[in-house]
Structure formats: structure tokens, C-alpha cells
Amino acid sequence: MYMVGDIPEEVDLYGGSAMVKMVATKVNDYLKSIEAMLIEAVGNSKRFTPPMPHEKMRELGGNVISYGCNMGEGWVLTAEMMELIHHGFSNIICTQPFGCLPNHITGKGMIRKIKNICPDANIVPIDYDPGATKVNQENRIKLMLAVARENKNKEAI
Fold first, then answer.
1. Which of 3, 11, 84, 149 could make an S-S bridge to 89, C-beta 3.0–4.6 Å?
2. Does one domain contain both 20 and 42?
């Protein structure tokens, strides 16, 4: 849905064929109907939490980053963090694989903006590349968990 759903936006932002935009819109409408069935099926399960509809997740991400940012995971990574926070999961580890520049921009680069919108968010970016030591990664995760415990204790008071 991310790839097809962004085509109309790309045509509006960067130019392109009206025919491509129309076809992408129709395909996206079909995918939305499949998504609705999937969300309903998962919602009927007692074991799983249904995902947020793509359009709602897109709106949450659009409050933080432009839809024109579509390199790598693009705006989706930011939107997924916003979705987690929306569902009550404010402690997030954002992994940065192998020096992936788009991920650094849409993940690590959006953390401050997300925290401005959601002050309770506790997000830590962890780099997983040859230059990152395991000890540093573990210490950053432990620090994030310590902040999470501290925040939970504040809520209890």
C-alpha cells in the first residue's frame, strides 16, 4: 500500500501521468478493501492487536514528515513510530541498519519532532553496522529501559 498509495502524491508533487495516478488510485482502493478484511480478521483474534488502517497511519506520519519523503522506508518508519505511540507503546527502539542514510533521516532524524508532538515518547536509535560495538548498543538499550522505568514510576505517583 505504501508504494501504490504514494503514486498519486508523487504525481502531484513531482509531476507525472494522470493515467498513472488514476490507475494507482484504483489499485489503492482495491488494496484498502483487502486491508479492511485483514484488520477485521485480526480484530476477531484474541491474541493479536489489529493494525491501524494504512490511511490513518499515513495521517499520523503526515503530521511529522512529508509524504514526498519516500526514499528507503520513507515516511512509513516515522508513521509506524507514531502508530506505536498512539497504541500506548511509548518506549521504542529504532534500529538503524548498516549506515542506511534514508533510515537515519526518517528514523533518527524525526525523533525530536515526534517527541515535540508526543512528549512521553522514549525513543532510542540503535546503529547496527560494523563500526557500532555491541557494548554501546546494549548500554543504549539499558539506558532507554531505565528511562522507561523512571517514567512508569512517575505515572504511579
1. 84
2. yes
